[in-house]
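ESCALATION

Customer reports they have been waiting on this structure for their group meeting. Please prioritize. Original submission:
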Amino acid sequence: MRMLKLWCVGVGLCMACGASTVAADPGTMTDSAAKKNLIVTNDYIIGPQDVLEISVWRNPDLSRQVVVRPDGRISLPLIGDVSAVGKTTGELRDAITEKLKDYKENPTVAIVVQQVNSYYMYVQGAVGQQGRFPLLTSTSLIQAITLAGGLAPDAVRSRIVVFRLGGEGQEAQRMTVNFDDIILRGAENFQLKPGDTVVVPSETMVLLP
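Update from on-call: job pushed to the front of the queue and completed.
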């Protein structure tokens, strides 16, 4: 009996450790914790609602903190609106620098991402937990469904749909995916992008072809 009790205690401790691991999962993190854990690299793609610190050397009147508007643009003195969404900080810096050349000789511009507010994905439909999830690292479709609590019993596994926003001048995309093709048949488990929405239909939900 003593050995059995010790074994049960050990199992309980293992389960508690497992629970701690799950609690630290990106899908369950708060928005503020997610932002603190996201490392912004030079390859970071700017998105709507991101907060940028733009500095123009020796020109404090032109330097300011701006929020990327839903239309993908920011506004700056002298040059007005500049498209920011879909660009890296380097690309946006070059675009601002080029516009400022009409007003200043050899302007020097620096951009820092102060807040990341756009790196999210959305999972809806027949899953354990619907909602918005921070996209902290490279995340596949299967991982996204796992973060959302897995497929519900009535999920239509063969007709999962991913909606992807189009970039500047591009149309939005709609992709239909067979879950079992990925798991059992080696189909591509493609990576999600910021703003992607995964919809898992149920047997009572009707989606157009």
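Sent to customer with the following note: Residues 118-200 form a domain with the Outer membrane lipoprotein wza fold like fold (CATH 3.10.560.10).
Escalation resolved.
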